[in-house]
Amino acid sequence: MNVEFIQALDDIEKDKGISKEVLIDAIKTALVSAYKKDFGSKDNVRVEISTDAGEVKVFSKKEVVKEVENENSEISLKEADQIDSKFAVGDIVEIEVTPSNFGRIAAQTAKQVVMQRIREAERDVIFDQFKEKEDELITGTIQRFHNDNILIDMGKTEALLPPSEQIAGEKYEVGKRIKLYVVEVSSTSKGPRILVSRTHPGLLKRLFEIEVPEIFQGLVEINAVAREAGQRSKMAVSSTDKQIDPVGACVGPKGMRVQAVVEQLNNEKIDIVKWDDSPEEFVANALNPAEVISVDINKSDKIAQVVVPDFQLSLAIGKEGQNARLAAKLTGWKVDIKKESESIHTDEELEEIDQEASELTEKLSELDEADDQEEALEAAEENEKNLDLDQSETAEEEKSADLEVGIEKTE
């Protein structure tokens, strides 16, 4: 090795992004592996490389013993004393054993190990580079198709766009540049595996962050996103500044901002609604563009009972239930929609009905008591009449008896 070799390492560092120290370590490892056969074990070999002059030295480490049993790892006290009289039994002596020239096998082994380390270092650099881009937006070029998978050229590596992450109906052509959301970056024996998506809700969020300056500045926040990729999406936004309309900021002048996002998502329809801390208000907003009369929240069952005008029912539910389904995903509430004519009574109406029922029951009770009293009075009067009649009949009988007695006495 020489100065030109060290310069070559500097060039590799610039071109491939691999530090010279990593390469030096790789070369040392290669040389140790190449010479371990000659010294019995790689633990007995130390390689020293001068980064200034490019000079390489190989040292064999041996233990000082009285009698040598293994020449690869041991040295006699007599031989050690010739090197330095201070050595004693048990000390470790390093002896330079740098060969005058590299053998073909040793050189080939060193080359293979160095190249392998360079490849590994490149993979590490790529992995670290893309690991930082997880959950972020990247742009790539469609390179080729493998079965139903699409391989995206990312420059130094490829990203994988599987069928499950592709927008249904979207046309993918080789050479076309597309924006993608990085779902996951993992390390494999063949290098980093970069999984990207066109259907992830995060893609919609990142695209709006690019198109809407207020989001980038932190004045508008994206609180929730629900997607059915390629068809329709809903996004809930709020503002940290009361003077800024979050929905209007995302839509943009004449709808230019939202349209720019729509064009990048295969003309996917996007509903932007206002976030609200109140579940009732948020659910009502999420069902946009349908009008909502009332929302009744059942916290225990996580159900939102929604009442809409009869003519708005189909709009609230949406085609094949899409609008209601997206509203449920966006809010986290199960949405049960009923039209006004078939809706259940509200709490106020139920209270009014209960009050009317109580009043009616009380009146009926009073009427029953009055009827009972009237019946009792009639019964008393009837008993009194019967008693008077009985007494009258008894008096008549007594008069008749007295009359009969008087007649008998006269005779």
Residue share in helix: 40-55%
The percent range for strand residues is: 15-25%
**Which residues form runs of ≥5 with pLDDT under 50?**
401-411
- Domain count: 4
Which architecture of the largest domain would the CATH scheme give at its second level?
2-Layer Sandwich
- Could you please say which CATH topology of the largest domain applies here? GMP Synthetase, Chain A, domain 3
Order of secondary-structure elements: HHEEEHEHEEEEEHHEEHHEHEEHHEH
Shape: elongated
Mean pLDDT: 81
What spatial order of strands do you see in the largest sheet? 5-6-7-9-8
The CA-CA distance between the termini, in Å, is 180 Å
CATH evolutionary superfamily of the largest domain:
K homology (KH) domain
Extended strand count:
15
Radius of gyration: 48 Å
CATH class (first level) name of the largest domain: Alpha Beta
What structural class results from the helix and strand content?
Answer: alpha/beta
Count, helices: 12
